[in-house]
Amino acid sequence: DSTGVFAAWGATEALKIDVTTAEAAIASTELMYIAQEIEGQDLQHLEWGTAGAQSVTVSFLFQSPKSGTTCVTLYEPATTGTSHIKEFTVAVADTPERFTLTFPGLTSPVLPNTNVSGLRLAFPLVAGSNYQATVDTWAVGQDYGTSNQQNLLDSTANSVFIGQIKLEVGSTATAFEHESYGDTLAKCQRYFHRVVDEAVM
């Protein structure tokens, strides 16, 4: 979305989830979330899996069609499948807000030092009871919300906006970093780069 929902924070664009088919009744097995997978080799500085495991802070911009409670989750998929759920409260519907949440470090297990997913940062839009757990604790299970998680997909009038998501070491959130197009492109080319044979064009 480029309507400037988060313009007050210097953001010209946001990720928009537009509900085109409403799901009013959430079954226990239903789940939908927005997530970022982070490779284990990029998480080694967190010292997770040791007594010195460092906390991490997630900051983000969010606009919800509803006031009330929604969740953010960290999930460690590579070894024991451990989750930690945080709740945050939207004060006013359809109003942009900034949130900051700090998660404690995970003292076990050790995250893999490879390119497999070591951590998943997830924003649930709905989470059926099979994917719900207790807030503010690390526990084994692929869980994304609490019983307080709102259903953000129950009306075609709903739109959810997320922007300026940042995960960093420690308990203090710093300003969002606006990196250059060139830096972002170089990172993407690690995963995909099309080589064109100009001789056959």
Structure description:
This protein has 201 residues and is mainly beta. 4% of the residues lie in helices and 35% in strands. The chain has one helix spanning 181-188, and strands at residues 15-18, 31-39, 56-63, 68-76, 82-90, 97-103, 117-127, 138-140, 159-169. The longest helix has 8 residues, at 181-188. The protein is globular. The mean pLDDT is 95.
Quick gist of this model?
The chain is mainly beta and 201 residues long. Helices cover 4% and strands 35% of the residues.
Sum up the structure in keywords:
201 residues, 5-stranded antiparallel beta sheet, 4-stranded antiparallel beta sheet
Q: Low-confidence parts, pLDDT < 50 over ≥5 residues? A: none
Helix/strand order: EEEEEEEEEH
* End-to-end C-alpha gap: 35 Å
Mean pLDDT rating: 95
Give a short account of the largest sheet. 5 strands, antiparallel
Write the topology of this structure.
Layout: E1 15-18, E2 31-39, E3 56-63, E4 68-76, E5 82-90, E6 97-103, E7 117-127, E8 138-140, E9 159-169, H1 181-188
Antiparallel strand pairs: 1-9, 2-7, 3-6, 3-9, 4-5, 4-7, 5-8
